[in-house]
Records
---
Amino acid sequence: ARDVLAMARAVGPVEVGSVQEGQLRFPIAVRLDEPFRASPDAVGRLLVAAPNGDRIPLRRLATIELEEGPSTIQRTWGRRRIVVQANVRGRDVGSFVEEARAAIEERVDLPGGYYVRYGGQFEHLQDAQRRLMIVVPVALALIFGLLYLTYRRLSDALRVFAAVPFAAVGGVLALVARDMPFSVSAGVGFVALSGVAVLGDMVLVS
């Protein structure tokens, strides 16, 4: 068995040492000559020494097939991973991922130990949305607090702050009219819109 495995490793390069030139170190690898590894038949004709001294063709000891596989094996935290990339055009990334997730759960039966993780722009979008869930309420609370400190009256602060939900309704209608999804830039725009609406009402109240 060891001889068969050694012959299989010899098809690909086997590192046997290294050579150093200055500060650089280069590995030394050996492999079978091209005629002996050009095809499965050529590999099958390689002779392996038996314990009694006979030389047996490798095809009698192992099944030799040519199969396609990954050119490189990538790992994350010690686990193998395969990356499938796609460019989304003409629609938002969030709805595309939700549709892809539903289709994969319905049609793909993953073996044990396998799982699917969605990254890239979708992962950044989720992180940004989680931050916006904190930043937007804090920003609105700060705006209301500054209004109260300015007018010293709760009724005046509420009167000015009432422009924020109306401005938000207009922003939502604009997104619907343009058929645009709610994105991170849209969330930042809503915060800026709230400030503009409050500033306009402050001019009217004063």
Note: The chain has seven helices and six strands.
---
Amino acid sequence: MTATAKSKLHQMTLEFPTDYWNDSCSVEELTYAIDNGAVGATSNPTIVHMVLKKEMHLWTERIHELIRDNPTWSETELTWKLVEEMSVHGANLLRPIFDKYQGKRGRLSIQTNPALYRNAQGIAEQAVHFDSLAPNMIVKIPVTQAGIEAIEEVTFHGVSINATVSFSVPQAIAVAEAVERGLNRREAEGKSSEQMAPVCTIMVGRTDDWMKVAAKRDGIEIEPSYLDWAGIACMKKAYQIFQQRGYRTRLLAAAYRHLGHWAEFIGGELIVSMPYEWQLKANASDIEVKERMSHAVDSQIIQTLYNEIPDFRRAYDEDGMKVEEFDEYGATVRTLRGFIASAHELTAEVRDFMLPNPDVRKTETVKA
């Protein structure tokens, strides 16, 4: 570790063009991440619910205020207002970075309602609204058929997007092409795109997860350790294509399952978005901070995955899926189901404030 680096992640950001984000909008976690070189943060329904439970003491009074001040709002409206406020709170912590880098870094990623995954207009309208919440918002849009349409449209309107629910090379390319169309339309009308910073996530850990599920479901016998390389292989291939074609979208690696999901991307001009616990593991590890992005995945691993698992071929080949097939891809379905369920769980948390369970006796404050 260099003398000026506070940690391994900080060293990475000092020595390489690889940025790192905090995969959470938690105040405590984001503060740690920024101190160690992070230049962005992200959220989704699962993350927001986890943060709320962890930092309930910071939000209890505000939730009561929102309920009191908006007597006609439904639990869904209150839930999304809470998501907005938690996201803006995180964005404020990143604002100095945003100003320093003139919009290219320092953004908080806020996710559109996952239940809208089939509704391009609904996604676009919510994305434009989220973009207005703070100057340094970046809006997550799922890489579904409707999501690709929405990505082009909101990019045209000046919204920086972070494509999510994305696991494959063809999805990443579809995102980059949609962003290019949106930027070209915008620039043709003389509108600036100078401060826009579009991102495309590949959820490398969820790519691995799906290969493991598919292999088990279909009775495919394969060396278990090979399955931990599926997401890395897809990311490295997508990265090569992005570099060759000069796409203006940056790739982002997310959904960590092991430290290879960090170490293998060091040196790339991309983003690693790491949960707090994985940041701690990386900083405490004995992994050398050195360039590995250009190191190819073992050809035997790729060939075995390619020959044995049809859904790896779909994820790895540039033309492995058409846009209209994205919605039915196993990893997409599993992730959407999880995100939608998390949104409902978050709503249930708000419901408990609005309609406390009458079967449970309220805790009484005992005076000393």
Note: Residues 11-354 form a domain with the TIM Barrel fold (CATH 3.20.20.70).
---
Amino acid sequence: MVNLMRGVARGVTAGAAGTTALNAASGLDSVVRARPASTVPEQLVERVAKDAIPGRGKVRKNRVAALGPLAGIGNGVGIGGLAGGLRAVGLRLPAGLGGPVLGLAAMVATDGPVALTKVSRPAEWSTDDWLADIVPHLAYGVVTHRTIASLSKDEERPPPAARCRTLIRAGALGAATGLRSSIGMSALSLSARRDDAGVSSRIAGPWAKTGSVVVAAGETVLDKQPTTPDRTEPPGLLPRAGLAATSGGAVAARYGEDPDLPALVGAAAAIGSAMAGIRFRAVARKRCGKDLPGALVEDAVAVVLSWLAVRRGK
């Protein structure tokens, strides 16, 4: 419990630093583009709090104007505290993903209530509006994640750097995941043991193994259907990259090595193989007159790559 509370405290501090970075990025954007300050926080407070804010006229208006920024600070500090607590209990996000993930969490925590209360409609935002939202939140995520990592390093013994063999394993798992999104994690689960370090130990049970096989088999069937969405579009590509990063980091953690670089290698390999696989399928379809032969070759390649990646051995 003490470690958890220390982690939360570190996260709160990091969240405050991240919120400062967010405000600085937003203010700089306003200066550069002469963009007016957003009134959305005040409108959200007005919509949510309604009669809970005391006062009338100018007095109440001033309180609403003050509560808007305070709500943003609370959001940033709260997400930072949650991230710090999760890190204290062992959930460490890879360096390349931690910042974007925390930035996305802050965006969801901010834009979600805005959309639900209809203060604004994100679906109707312009590209400039989205940039004005994404860039400051990304700055928040990067600063918060790096601050948590820096404050935690005295209590965390850094694992050794990933070996070349581990990077190859991560790349193979990533490439397999790019072809079949669930197969990397399925292979990892099937080869997992209870005494493994990291994610592997959590997916080593019989239910996890059975579920992973069912999911992988289902995806293999769905992949052959003509209505299956294009894997190179963001809805198909981003989950593949995320799953590949998770499996790449997990296979490194299994051997007690730093998961950050393997996670990035896995994600990059997944993106590359997803695009290469689509091109291969198109060529195979043109030569064979149908899609099935190319799809079966992809199945075989994905199975072999994932099996080689999770084989036990030095």
Note: The chain has a mean pLDDT of 85.
